[in-house]
Amino acid sequence: MGRMGELYVRGSLFTEFGHLFLPHLHNLDLSDNTISRINLEHFSGLPKIKHLTLSGNPLTISLLEPSSVVLVVPHLVSLDLSRVAMDEANLSVLSPF
User: Fold this and answer.
1) Confidence (pTM)
2) Is the N or C terminus of the chain more exposed, i.e. has fewer CB atoms within 10 Å?
């Protein structure tokens, strides 16, 4: 069976990002969808993810604990949150579990 290393679902009208199990994936592009909430637990099935693009989604990103991201996605090198609203008042958008 092949090993999927990259997955591009840009502009696919996704509204949610659920739990994925893609152990060899290193690049995930979810830009320009309609995802409004991300749960860090959903990244636990992506142990080798290095590049994650969430730009252009209607996420309301709040204060994010860097230590939580490092624990769940330890190999993450780049996280693209361009064109994403920043709102310190909404602390539950990126929940650690």
Assistant:
1) 0.77
2) N
